[in-house]
Amino acid sequence: MQKYNISRSNYFYAIGLSYKKADADIRGHFSLDEESKLALLTQAKENDIESLVVTSTCNRTEIYGFAQHPFQLIQLLCDNTRGTVEEFQEVAYIYKNKDAIAHMFRVGSGLDSQILGDFEIISQLKISAKLSRKHGLLNHFTERLVNAVIQASKRIKTETDISSGATSVSFASVQYIFKNIENVSNKNILLFGTGKIGRNTCENLVKHTKNEHITLINRTKTKAEQIAGKFNLLVKDYANLQEEISESDILIVATGAQRPTIDKHIIQAEKPLLILDLSIPKNVDENVQELEHVSLVHLDHLSQITDETLEARKAHIPSAEVIIEEVKAEFNSWLETRKFAPTIKALKHKLSDFATAELDTQRKKNADFNEAQAELISNNIIQKITNHFAHHLKDDDVSTDDSLELIKKVFQLEPSTKNV
User: Glutamyl-tRNA reductase N-terminal domain location, by residue (predicted)?
Assistant: First the structure.
């Protein structure tokens, strides 16, 4: 990767942690809200990081970027979250160069999602890349890679059935409620937090429960009112949170707070209460379980709910992997071209210098020298020569690096860069 003429730094890395090894608490330590993301990007710029894309969802936090050493990226993450390097080392993964590229493809295509085929991550990747571009932290390589991953994701979504059927964290929440609560349509449901998962859960609740006793509360009331308007639901002020919890049979928490917003002290009623915490970091304190009448279920448990839909999706993994390999091959072909483009350009300039010198000589020797015709012939010859070299360098049977060194040496294009 260091020879591809795409970065001042040596390597492309993907560093991060996910649901696979990090539980909800640890993922919460490394979660990045919008403010933290901006702080991280600012610090990266100050540290002369050339290109960087940061994603943080309920299931994973990752940094894709160029660095001399992965610790540069790990330090950025730890400096802007509550996580420590020691915690990171215990649960994290580090991918380098082609492995980092392959990892982004799997993540963006929903194959690495906690719920197979969940394409929520691709929209996060788009937003993150846009933010990096805005801050001057997106080079040609990273932008091209993100676009390739988006292309693969689109193809998998349209050409396979890996995302067919209703299955997501929000849908799993409703499934859980149905399985564990009787007469759901008559229960009082309170949704606290109206982010993406909160909105989706609300939609699933309305669609599947036929419940007319759903109340929304959000710190910013106008956001709750926008969602409530779609489904004709009740909205209450944040100040009424404790009172509304006392009236509820089911509490769904989906806020984006960095610390728990619900604990045992806010629960005053003695009747049974089911709490679903769909937040990362966790927004419900574990101490609510000290109350005998309260049942607490977290996002990770809901994500483990598998059904026939998820099993059916697994059959489409091979087809998705074929698409990934096709798009990745196109990307690698572009990358290989980028590798020798500067040398071909330098060769063309060198041949043009030869042609200019020779044309000057012939011009002085011949009184009836045909300027236009001579220039046309020389340009055509230069183009043919450079095309031959380019085709040779694209040949899989030759060593591109050795060929580049030989071309540079023969035509004295530049000092050898073999060890760079």
Answer: 15-160
Task: Give catalytic residues, as residue numbers.
Answer: 58
Higher pLDDT, 111 or 387: 111
Query: Any known ligand binding at 353?
Result: no
Domains of the chain listed by start with CATH number: 11-164 (3.30.460.30), 169-307 (3.40.50.720), 334-410 (no CATH)
The verdict on whether residue 78 carries a ligand-binding annotation is no
Question: How much is the pLDDT for 396?
Answer: 61
Whether 194 has a binding-site annotation, put simply, is: yes
Residue 419 pLDDT > 50 = no
> What confidence score (pLDDT) does residue 416 get?
41
pLDDT in tens, 309-343: 677 788 889 999 999 999 999 998 888 777 777 77
